[in-house]
């Protein structure tokens, strides 16, 4: 599940940040890609649509890397 979530974040993020998906991985930090609040909001909305669950923006924004964000979402899906 975690790997699938990482793929989804990269899929959406690569479009938002103008990067190739291959340039991004679980260790990529949101600071490295200069993620803005609008980008984070877009990603959380995308994940909510994909997984039919609420992904709180504030909690997601606290994550430093794509991997941390995937762990956060995976934990939400397990609840």
UniProtKB/TrEMBL annotation:
- Domain (Carrier) spans 1-77
Species for this entry? Enterocloster lavalensis
Q: Which residues form a coiled coil?
A: none
Write down what this protein is called.
Answer: Acyl carrier protein
């Amino acid at each position: 599940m975690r790997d699938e979530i990482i793929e989804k974040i990269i899929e959406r993020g690569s479009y938002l940040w103008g990067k190739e998906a291959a340039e991004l991985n679980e260790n990529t930090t949101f600071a490295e890609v200069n993620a803005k609040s609008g980008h984070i909001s877009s990603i959380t909305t995308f994940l909510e649509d994909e997984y039919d669950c609420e992904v709180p923006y504030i909690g997601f924004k606290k994550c430093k890397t794509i991997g941390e964000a995937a762990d956060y979402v995976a934990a939400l899906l397990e609840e």
